[in-house]
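Target protein
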Amino acid sequence: MLCLYDSETNSIINYPRGDEEPVVGLAQRYEVFRVVEQDKPEYDPATYRIKATRTVDIAAKEWVWGWELVQLPPALPAADWARFKKTVMAHPSVNLAIGGGISQVPAAAISLPATLLASAAGADVLDFRNAWLSLRGAELISVELLAEVRALAIDCHLPELFIGALGGALRSDAEYLGQEWVSGDGVLYRVTQARNEDGTFREDDPATTERESLVWEAVE
């Protein structure tokens, strides 16, 4: 199979004939290249993925249809929810926080174990986060306990969304509306549209990587 190489645009175009006979009156910018189809290599899909490549070999006057093997990143360890739940629910400080919350924030204290179990089963972490933040807002979860529970969640390879719900991570740049972050002192922040002093929406400066149109605001 033949094709044409356009030396002015460095691009490949279809051969204008249905056979491989010469093209009459071909402009000098075009060169006739042969299409070379390489055999698909064997590979282990558990460790590699394969993608098709198209390479122009000007010296050989070939358009090579080849393959590239891309090694897959190592699989992440499975989330160890069982160890996390067992450790947290048996933790004396967590139980003291739940006990103290019965009188201060009863709904949060009662729902925390159930929402933790639901999160482990794949449910949305929103209910757990709300219960956890309520206990933190009542100053029942110390900074030290937060750090300990967060470290345990990371060591158990729990999902980033759940770890983020615990709070205490460094705040990232504002990237999109609705983005959330929980501070180390238990305050929930959400990205909203930034405004100028006159109330108009602020625009991004294309000369900077920062998105001036977005701002972190504490959620009351």
About this structure: DSSP finds six helices and eight strands in the chain.
